[in-house]
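Q: Hi! First time asking for a complex rather than a single chain. Here are the components, and I think there are two in total. Is that enough to go on?
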Amino acid sequence: VLAVLRESDGYGYDVLRRLRAAGLTEVGDASVYGTLRRLYRAGALTTYVVPSEEGPNRKYYSLNESGRDSLASSTKTWLGFADALNTLLETGTKEVA
Amino acid sequence: VNTTLDNAAAAYVDAMRAELADLPPDEVAEIVDDVADHLEQVAAELGDTVTPVALADRLGAPAAYAAELRAAAGFPAPTGGPRRGDRSRRAQRFLVTWMIRIALGIGVTGTAISLVDGYWYPEFWLVAAMLVAVAGGGWLLLRGPSREPAEVLRELPDLARAERRYGLIASTAWGSATTEFVASLRPAWWVVRGWVAANVLIFFVGRDPAFPIDRSVGAVLVLAAAIVASVWWGRRSAAGAVEGWPRLAQLAGNALLAIAAPVVVVSIGQPTGYAYIHHEPVFDGFYHQDGLPIVNLFPYGPEGDLLEIRLYDQEGRAVDNVFGIDWDADCAGVADVRPGNVFPRPLVELDPVTGQCVEVEFAAPFGAVLRGTAPSSVVDDEHGDG
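A: Yes, that's all I need. Here is the structure of the assembled complex.
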């Protein structure tokens, strides 16, 4: 969710669609909305309201400084973890071969 | 706009809101904001086939949706009981809920009594209206002067339940047809609101509330101004231009006018003030210019002596509707020994000792002989006295 919002600000359904488009088809609608609320309460996101032509005003979420830091450290953790697993799996594959 | 769609989505959001009732109200409001938008998007994708069932197929039951959102947001699972910190809010809610219930009870009782009695008792409505105004207004002030009034009112369990039920009924084919029809009558409701407001206004400045009968220029002007203002306000409100405090005022005003409407409707066709003299019996008969009924007649002849006469009108009908004798209901009919058009009428009273109706001396205000008309008898009289 943080990565999606780093690209550009978005409202709930917009974030959901972008996650799906990125290939995360299994992620639940309610989970995305819940995650947005959790990140907001943790101070990683700020919100602002944009008047909409078709319907009611729409609440946009945007990444703030704390969110960017959080994304950077999560990215580092994830890449390190993925690297380790890749190495492990590649070694295993070689041994099997 | 497809109202079926809106109703099904609204019912879903409400059901979900109920699942989150234990969370802080501000957080719930934020979540509901997001979810309402989500539902709208999903409903738009589903197109014309939006029903509560279709929504549940796509998103899961409202309870499941709420549970998943809770878990992702890091909120604890519902504890089953409300939080301790909310004690004062719960006390307020309890008080307001019961005030409104009692007001409803008073309103229903008053209406029932009015139907049985055939008289209209505005006091019941007044008390009910005051209770609702104090309870509703107090709740809105205490709970969220800056929040959406509908949102704040939804925190009252009775109102939330009523709204949910309404949503379910409105999502049926018949229900949506009905709500659509009623919504299409909106401009007519604005006119009715203006008319009721004008009547209330005219009533309060001391004019006849039965406007259609009293067509004075002032009343016409007030009516025209009220209807124009009401329609203008309605159009603004429908366009979403009324927010915050003005909206609260609008809500309160509408509620008050809705309560006033039955009183206005009933008072029309009744003479001014008639509704308020319900316990005084009204008699047919003669009245003096000073407003008091004429209960007896004392005719004196040219000689000044008290006569017993029979009265007839120009059609030859006996004039027997002067109130006369039958004041004492226990003696009704007993004194009909003489025709009703014989005057002076004898007075008949119930003797408290014997339980019999007895004829009593009528008190002729000027006595058996009218002074000044018969000089000879007056002189005689004075001589006798002297």
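A: Residues 87-117 of chain B form the longest helix (31 residues). Let me know if you'd like any chain examined more closely.
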